[in-house]
């Protein structure tokens, strides 16, 4: 086994070990199991049967090697996530009305069923809550897809950055519900950066028409962050951030983001001064897990324009290390205040987006 592949599998094992020690609603890496979700009036139910995996580790091994049907138990045909829609009979038992494949590769995490029996909605993905283009999926009860959403379809990049992140997930939502009278899905999105699974969170409600999958209001910044000003009278506002920073990587133990001599500036001003902006390589494990994310990195820039400290503020954990390493290589024109060069703190962002080749490494290029 190559050294790089050993590293990938070691990282996966670490995630599995950490996940085993937390609650099932957080970053638990337990294999998904069959679940049934019923409407509030108990007249209709959706039964979710997940893709059957040999093991969590096998799933990631196959992802790394670009194999189709990653992690699947041997000898199973049509092994994928499936839904079955049931209606209650007069005798109180349920009969199956429809069976259909689900969009999720392995399994959704939860689901809702409308009291009318017209719609079912699934939420999130096994092992990566908040990531992917199927964080919210609306179906008709016969399996017809109405609309699927990623978080970026309903929230701005700035709002996503404020959401609480864990080892492998964005803990973005609360107890979503269906507004039966108006046939709308109501998403409860964390609005105060508190962990929705541990309590203390407040929520903003986003309404989506079930028939069309259209949000009732346009996407906009819902949770603008507070802006602070530098103690140095530079006339430049600091980049807002109330995220929990990662451990800083610094060229010297004496450097600090919180030094009173440091000027905090907007990221747009910092970008304008960049003279070298190397991009990070895509981490193999993140590519294998099909993780996409924007990583925001806070940087401390020396008087000469070198990055002397960097730390991640937000984004998927599998991508943060690569982003921080790249940020440390950036170069800037010196920042000046009142004619003197000063140390400056700002943020840079790295958008990790998978290509078709990343998703399907065995695909042939188009002629």
Question: Mind sketching the topology for me?
Answer:
Blueprint: H1 3-19, E1 35-38, E2 44-49, H2 56-64, E3 82-88, E4 94-101, E5 110-113, E6 119-123, E7 136-140, E8 145-149, H3 151-154, H4 157-162, E9 177-179, E10 184-190, E11 203-209, E12 249-250, E13 263-264, H5 267-272, E14 274-276, H6 284-288, E15 293-301, E16 307-314, H7 317-327, E17 331-332, E18 335-337, E19 340-342, E20 344-352, H8 356-359
Parallel strand pairs: 13-20
Antiparallel strand pairs: 1-2, 2-3, 3-4, 5-6, 6-7, 7-8, 9-10, 10-11, 12-16, 14-17, 15-16, 15-20, 18-19
Helix pairs in contact: 1-2
Characterise the protein shown here:
The protein is α+β, with helices and mostly antiparallel strands. The protein has 2 domains: 3-209, no CATH class; 249-352, TonB (TolA/TonB C-terminal domain). The protein contains 8 helices and 20 strands. It has a 5-stranded mixed sheet. It has a 4-stranded antiparallel sheet with strand order 1-2-3-4, with no helix packed on it. A 4-stranded antiparallel sheet has the order 5-6-7-8. Helix 1 (3-19) packs antiparallel against helix 2 (56-64). The chain is elongated, with a radius of gyration of 23 Å. It starts with a helix and ends in an 8-residue tail after the last helix.
């Amino acid at each position: 086994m190559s050294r790089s592949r050993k590293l990938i599998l070691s990282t996966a094992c670490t995630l599995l070990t950490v996940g085993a020690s937390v609650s099932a609603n957080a970053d638990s890496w337990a294999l998904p199991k069959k679940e049934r979700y019923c409407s509030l009036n108990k007249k209709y139910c959706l039964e979710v049967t997940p893709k059957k995996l040999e093991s969590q580790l096998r799933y990631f091994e196959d992802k790394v090697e670009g194999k189709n049907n990653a992690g699947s138990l041997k000898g199973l045909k049509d092994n994928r996530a499936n839904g079955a829609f049931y209606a209650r009979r007069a005798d109180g038992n349920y009969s199956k009305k429809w069976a259909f494949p689900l969009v999720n590769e392995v399994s959704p995490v939860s689901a809702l069923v409308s009291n009318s029996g017209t719609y079912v909605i699934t939420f999130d993905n096994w092992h990566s809550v908040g990531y992917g283009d199927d964080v919210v999926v609306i179906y008709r009860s016969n399996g017809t897809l109405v609309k699927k959403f990623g978080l970026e379809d309903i929230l701005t990049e700035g709002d996503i950055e404020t959401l609480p992140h864990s080892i492998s997930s964005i803990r973005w939502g609360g107890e979503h519900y269906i507004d039966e009278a108006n046939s709308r899905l109501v998403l409860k999105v964390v609005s105060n950066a508190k962990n929705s699974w541990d309590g203390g969170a407040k929520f903003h409600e986003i309404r989506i028409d079930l028939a069309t999958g259209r949000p009732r209001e346009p996407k906009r910044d819902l949770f603008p962050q507070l802006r602070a000003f530098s103690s140095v009278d530079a006339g430049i506002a600091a980049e807002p951030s109330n995220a929990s920073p990662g451990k800083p990587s610094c060229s010297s133990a004496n450097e600090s983001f919180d030094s009173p001599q440091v000027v905090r500036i907007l990221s747009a001003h910092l970008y304008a001064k960049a003279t070298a902006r190397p991009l990070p390589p895509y981490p193999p494990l993140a590519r294998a897990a099909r993780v996409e994310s924007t990583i925001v990195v806070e940087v401390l820039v020396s008087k000469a324009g070198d990055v002397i400290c960097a730390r991640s503020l937000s984004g998927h954990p599998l991508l943060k290390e690569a982003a921080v390493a790249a940020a440390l290589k950036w170069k800037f024109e010196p920042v000046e205040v009142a004619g003197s060069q000063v140390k400056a703190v700002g943020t840079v962002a790295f958008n990790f987006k998978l290509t078709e080749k990343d998703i399907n490494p065995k695909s042939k290029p188009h002629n």
